[in-house]
Amino acid sequence: MVNKKKIPNATMKRLPLYYRYFKQEEHNGNDRVSSRQISEALDIDSATIRRDFSYFGELGRKGYGYNVSSLLKFFLEHIQGNDVKNVILAGAGNLGSALLNYKFANIHDKMNVVGAFDNNKALIGKKINGIEIYSVDDLERIIEIENVEVAIMTVPMEAGQETADRLIEAGIKGILNFTPIRLNTTPDVTVHSIDLGVELQALFFQMKIK
């Protein structure tokens, strides 16, 4: 079993990139790849790739590279997991609707979005990309019925903490947070925050110093 506590956050963030790369190589019919090929495809230096993989043991062989099917199996069993996780989306406004219109299978093939929630009566009962929008009053009920562990949160900033509290109380263990606030959660809940404003500022800064 992989001890994820010893793995740096930067490495963990690169793992989905590696998985997607090996998935594409399998689709292309390739049996093996080198760290140099991975480096060129993902724009990550070879030393970083070898160091990332070293946290999980001997995944490749010198002079041979990495076996595509073996690495895919490893990612599925030890990192991604074999089970499909049911996910909900809290907040079906502009950003939430845009996410619903996107093909979630392109983001993660082990994710099943079972519903979205909003307090806007004009949205409740509608479907976006086949996903029904429920009233926020049904939040806890759907989470329990569908055995949901993960929530994507795109509610307005002022509703962020209250929504997170309800999600956690209902049994959610992972939150992808698109609100620009730091959420207070219990230790057993994992939160990954994406602040689009901060990301844009980082992009502008990187463009300026190039």
TrEMBL record:
Record's subcellular location: Cytoplasm
Keywords: Cytoplasm, DNA-binding, NAD, Repressor, Transcription, Transcription regulation
Cellular compartments per GO CC: cytoplasm
DNA-binding region, residue intervals: 17-56
Domain CoA-binding residues, every copy: 81-182
Record has DNA-binding as a keyword: yes
Matches recorded under InterPro entries: CoA-bd, NAD(P)-bd_dom_sf, Rex_bacilli-type, Rex_DNA-bd_C_dom, Tscrpt_rep_Rex, WH-like_DNA-bd_sf, WH_DNA-bd_sf
Keyword rRNA-binding among record annotations: no
Cross-referenced Pfam families: CoA_binding, Put_DNA-bind_N
Binding site for NAD(+): 91-96
Protein's job: Modulates transcription in response to changes in cellular NADH/NAD(+) redox state.
Quaternary organization: Homodimer.
PANTHER family: REDOX-SENSING TRANSCRIPTIONAL REPRESSOR REX (PTHR35786), REDOX-SENSING TRANSCRIPTIONAL REPRESSOR REX 1 (PTHR35786:SF1)
Protein name as catalogued: Redox-sensing transcriptional repressor Rex
